[in-house]
Amino acid sequence: MKGRASKQSHRPERRTVIEISQWCYVAHDTGTYTVTLSGELDLLQAGDLTATLTEAAGHDDTTQMCVDLAAVTFIDSTVIGALLQGYHAAHTAAIGYTVTGMNGQVQKVLQVAGVLATLQGQPPSP
Fold it and tell me: Which one of 1, 19, 102, 122 is CB 3.0 to 4.6 Å from 117, fit for a cystine?
């Protein structure tokens, strides 16, 4: 993952935060990668998001991935695809993967697309 890394003073044990872009930060803390997204996300960000998620899933020390959408105001189908590619990369690597913080339009779009439960870590309905 490209970007600049900085140590967080409140958790000096091993937490690293990397700014990928203005809309994406990745925090790594003892096996857990948290990808925090913000703003309106569409085709322009989907490729970088896919790369970020699949790279995080590929690290030997990754045991859990969390994607935080609390500050996201819009997503399109390409971003849904990127989130699902991250899910599949995590599943293939046998690590946990959850998407959190969905609200408003973003939650509604994921629900209409039929992927909300899967991204929240719930088993698919029959």
Answer: 122
* CA atoms of 23 and 112, how far apart (whole Å): 24
Which has more confidence, 4 or 99?
Answer: 99
Q: How far, rounded to the nearest angstrom, does the alpha carbon of residue 3 sit from its chain's CA centroid?
A: 16
The more confident residue out of 3 and 39 is 39
pLDDT of 123 reads 62
Residue whose structure tokens are 């997503």: 75
Residues 116 and 77: their CA atoms lie apart, in Å, by: 13
Domains and CATH numbers, the chain: 4-119 (3.30.750.24)
Round to whole Å and give the CA distance between 110 and 6. Answer: 32
